[in-house]
Write a structure and sequence with these properties.
Blueprint: E1 2-5, H1 6-16, E2 22-25, H2 28-31, E3 38-41, H3 47-52, H4 58-64, H5 69-75, E4 80-84, H6 89-102, E5 114-119, H7 127-147, E6 153-157, H8 159-164, H9 168-183, H10 185-191, E7 193-197, H11 201-208, E8 213-220, H12 227-233, E9 245-254, H13 263-271, E10 278-283, E11 291-298, H14 302-305, H15 307-326, H16 338-348, H17 353-362
Parallel strand pairs: 1-2, 1-4, 2-3, 4-5, 5-6, 9-10
Antiparallel strand pairs: 7-10, 8-11, 9-11
Helix pairs in contact: 1-6, 1-9, 4-6, 6-7, 7-15, 16-17
Length: 366
């Protein structure tokens, strides 16, 4: 089962597995857009939100969290949550959900939840999405990393969608196919003959239960070339790039059993960072060349992750201020001689202008 929170999360959850997905939204209308196994409405106090959703206002999602807290915190155990970071429902509900988990003394490994978040592309998406994402990463995500009560956190980015001009459903499929390549590691380990190492379902769950950011990729592997160069040139461009490997996992599939010894070079690469990967080498007769799926866990601070968001958000705000200022009409400075104006006013009412001027000078008005 998977859980989709908000519109973007619901799309990913139901596209991955509609037969078992649970989706959550503040709007019945939004819920009806998806074919899901279970639909759960979070009660928003705003009538408008009940009809149209939270839109870009995370406060609506945060307020609605308490109506589904008990059920939501139960169904996410040992599962995957999908959400975007820029909207209102997903951001708001996940903010409260992460803070709830962060406030617990501990969460058993068997109950750890994996979170998959989709970040906006700050160059082209709405500034509200960017600002919401900044607050989300700097706040609840940062606190969740410090508390250590979640499983892996996976950060997809919409950047490639805009750069390649893909439709949303097609881009969602790319993200899910990429995720699925990682999720099927234990299934392949069970299906193919082992040549070295082993990753069973328990090993895989222990790995995904660790509270770090996860970057994964899959590519054709050349045993005669540098693994480091191949890895870095094949980083998953749908995800944020990794930094500072804490732990790693890889599945090496080879069509010829004699190619299995290439895994030693991979172990040597990670050993330079004092990392001992969980790994499995299997014989896959269905492929023509070796293939490898690699996962890297890293703990880069969210404040560092959002440098680009901060820069672009700042530029946008300065642009908006400049546009606002440019809309003001420039007023011409008026030069007025108060003495002459006093004489004119006195003449209009048939008074002695000079006498009035002398009085105004004595009291400091001229």
């Amino acid at each position: 089962m998977t859980i989709g929170i908000g519109g973007a999360g619901s799309k990913l959850s139901t596209q991955l597995d509609p037969a078992t997905s649970t989706i959550i939204n503040v709007s019945d209308i939004e819920l009806e857009k998806f074919d899901a196994h279970t639909k759960l409405r979070a009660v928003a106090h705003s009538t408008r939100a009940q009809l149209r959703g939270a839109r870009k206002d995370p406060s609506i999602g945060r307020d609605a969290f308490y109506s589904v807290r008990e059920k939501l915190t139960d169904i996410i155990r040992n599962d995957i949550v999908f959400s975007s970071t820029g909207g209102g429902t997903g951001n708001g509900l996940c903010t409260e959900l992460l803070d709830y988990l962060s406030g617990l003394d501990s969460v058993p490994i068997v109950d750890k939840t994996m979170f998959v978040f989709v970040l906006p592309y700050p160059e082209l998406e709405a500034s509200e999405f960017v600002d919401n994402t900044l607050q989300f990463l700097e706040g609840p995500v940062s606190r969740a990393i410090d508390a250590g009560n979640t499983g892996n956190l996976i950060l997809f980015s919409n950047q490639q969608k805009f750069l390649t001009r893909l439709q949303e459903d097609d881009y969602n499929r790319l993200m899910l196919d990429s995720l699925q390549e990682f999720l099927v590691i234990p299934e392949k380990g069970a299906r193919f003959d082992h040549l070295d190492g082993n990753i069973d379902f328990e090993d895989f769950h222990l790995y995904t239960a660790k509270p770090y950011f996860n970057h994964f990729c899959r590519f054709d592997f050349d045993p005669g070339a540098s693994f480091e160069k191949q890895l870095k040139s094949n980083y998953n461009n749908l995800l944020l790039a990794p930094e500072g490997t804490i732990e790693a996992m890889f599945l090496l599939e080879v069509p010829d059993a004699d190619q299995a010894v290439a895994f030693y070079d991979i172990l040597d690469y990670f050993a330079k960072d004092n990392v001992s990967p969980t790994y499995s080498v299997v014989h896959n007769p269905d492929i023509k060349k070796p293939s490898i799926t690699v996962s890297i866990l890293y703990s880069r601070k969210p404040l560092e992750l959002v440098d680009d968001f901060n820069v672009i958000s700042g530029k946008r705000k300065r642009t908006r201020v400049k546009k606002s200022l440019d809309q003001y009409v420039t007023l011409t400075k008026l030069e007025i001689d108060m003495t002459d104006e006093t004489r004119k006013a006195a003449k209009d009412v048939d008074q002695d202008g000079e006498e009035i001027i002398n009085v105004l000078k004595r009291i400091g008005k001229l």
